[in-house]
Design goal:
Helices cover 52% and strands 10% of the residues. The protein is built from 23 helices and 14 strands. The longest helix has 32 residues.
């Protein structure tokens, strides 16, 4: 019998609030509490709670024949404990069934594997203990943040006692080989490797509700047919996706819950596949080959590398500055510093600085709370600058305690719960390293805005236009208009619009934006007429605002 391995990633970052230069040194509240609470509650309501309930019902119905796996970041567990503890209880119920495996990962869902070995190991051990605390299970399988993997990471993971690791079945790494086998690390053969089948995984995660996709709709019968079409010699299919796919990324109206609810029956009765967890697979299968991966791979985008998080000047500056203080943070006994240190390492902060999609601003805006990568960088560096000042002050106090010396000039006083710096020169010194990059980012923002304005067709008069006049705009105008709008607003406004208007908009969407647009267009199929009118009014308002 062959196996299908269903693995779900569960993660949400602590989002930063707008933090300005003048806050540095005085204000240590970094997080947008409203957004964090609102988003985690929304995702819990739409995904975590109903999906957990559905999975529990399936396990009770099919017993040990149906099995799944989760990797839950320490960051999301912190938020669930604060805002939606009932979700944790749901995961506990799943853990008690014996049909669920919980994986280990870096606690902060961080890039520590690329930044500092000791910090990486510390986070993995902390996460392993946290999973034991919450769910009574000790993880034996490891997944790195964003499925990042390389030979050097394999060495660290193997040294921590893990026997199994999962990563992406990247084409440039596999070559002619199939991802549907168990592999091993070529340099550390004791570490077994399970590879994500990105085609079947993305069929669910990204293409499930895409009406423009030739294979739409995805049914369990069709999915089972794809499984049966795999070479009989291939032993395992690993479907690794975000848990938020169920109900949040793919809305309930798309039929995603019905798909997963009927999947076990379709697979068990219509194919020779059974369900298994990662650790079960490595117990029963033998590796067919060793994988040598000298350069890191990930599950992101076509490149399957690190360029979504590292590679441009903004990301590299922020990354190097963050991990340059690792040793100083380790010395700190301040719990708030240790907590912020975790939250500031999350991969999402670096993802927001990515400029790979800057030519396609609509998609970037859809996944990014910042107007541009440059704003994301400046905001993050302002927060990081304040954090560094706090770390430096903490180290000064530790030094004074060690020497049993109290020097007023070097000690900050406590005022209404805030640290007030009595030596502002230190503040300036702490900011010097990042000032150049921040200035460059600000200059790039200005150049981008000037260029954008210069490229506008001045002969078009926006003021007199309404929604239906989109067809009379130049392509440059349409692209500029779309860039300033939420993709959900565009999708809603175009529902029921004339084909000529839809064609005008669609041809000015980038490839990625077009996929997202078609997905959302399907999901808003039942939206009310009043909501459509509201979206069109927003577009008309944007048209007028761009004319000023």
């Amino acid at each position: 019998m062959r196996s299908i391995c269903l693995y779900f990633q569960v993660h949400q970052p602590f989002r930063l609030r707008t933090y300005r230069f003048f806050n540095i040194g005085d204000d240590h509240q970094y997080y947008d509490e409203y957004q964090n609470r609102h988003i985690i509650k929304r995702v819990a309501e739409k995904c975590y709670l109903p999906a957990n309930k559905m999975m529990l019902e399936l396990i009770r119905e099919y017993g040990p024949a149906f099995k799944i796996s989760f990797s839950i970041s320490g960051i999301v567990l912190e938020q669930l404990q604060m805002y939606a503890p009932e979700v944790i209880q749901g995961f506990r119920q799943l853990a008690n069934t014996g049909s669920v495996e919980f994986l280990a990962e870096p606690y902060a869902h961080s890039l520590a594997s690329q930044g500092n070995r000791e910090e990486f190991i510390r986070q993995v051990e902390l996460h392993r203990k946290t999973i034991e605390k919450y769910f009574g299970l000790t993880p034996v399988t490891f997944r790195n943040s964003e499925l990042i993997y390389s030979d050097s990471i394999a060495e660290m993971v193997s040294s921590m006692g893990f026997t199994t690791m999962i990563t992406e079945g990247a084409k440039h790494m596999l070559g002619w080989k199939s991802p549907n086998y168990l592999y091993a690390s070529a340099v550390f053969p004791r570490l077994k490797i399970l590879l994500r089948n990105f085609r079947l995984s993305d069929d669910i995660a990204f293409r499930f509700s895409d009406h423009s996709w030739p294979e739409w709709p995805v049914t369990t019968e069709k999915f089972t047919g794809w499984l049966n079409g795999i070479d009989p010699k291939e032993e395992v299919v690993n479907v690794f996706i975000d848990y938020e796919t169920i109900g949040e990324r793919q809305w309930k109206e798309t039929g995603i819950f019905e798909f997963f609810r009927s999947l076990p029956k379709a697979v068990l009765s219509g194919s020779d596949f059974t369900f298994a967890t990662p650790s079960e697979l490595t117990d029963k299968l033998q590796p067919v080959a060793g994988l040598q991966v000298p350069y890191p791979i990930s599950w992101a985008d076509e490149e399957k590398d690190l360029t979504s998080w590292l590679g441009n000047e903004l990301q590299d500056e922020a990354f190097s500055k963050l991990y340059s203080i690792t040793d100083k943070v380790k010395k700190s006994k301040d719990k708030s510093i240790q907590l912020d240190w975790q939250f500031l390492q999350t991969t999402d902060h670096f993802y927001y600085m990515c400029t790979k999609w800057f030519s396609d601003g609509t998609v970037h805006k859809y996944v990014n709370p910042y107007p541009s990568p440059y704003e994301a960088f400046i905001n993050y560096m302002n927060v990081l600058s304040d954090f560094i000042i706090r770390v430096e002050k903490g180290n000064i106090r530790l030094q004074e305690d060690d020497n049993e010396v109290v020097t007023k000039k070097r000690s900050p006083r406590i005022t209404t719960g805030k640290l007030v710096d009595e030596t502002p020169v230190k503040k300036v010194k702490a900011l010097t390293a990042s000032k150049t990059s921040i200035n460059k980012a600000q200059a790039e923002m200005r150049r981008s805005r000037v260029s954008e304005k210069a490229n506008e067709d001045q002969q078009d008069d926006f003021r007199a236009l309404d929604f239906s006049d989109i067809i009379n705009l130049s392509d440059k105008r349409v692209k500029n208009l779309i860039k300033h709008l939420d993709i959900e607003t565009v999708s809603s406004a175009l529902l029921g619009a004339d084909q000529e208007i839809r064609d005008k908009v669609e041809k000015n969407l980038g490839k990625r934006a077009l996929k997202t647009y078609h997905s959302l267009l399907n999901q808003v199929k039942t939206i009310s007429a009043s909501e459509i009118k509201k979206s069109r009014r927003l577009i008309e308002k944007q048209i007028k605002s761009l004319s000023k």
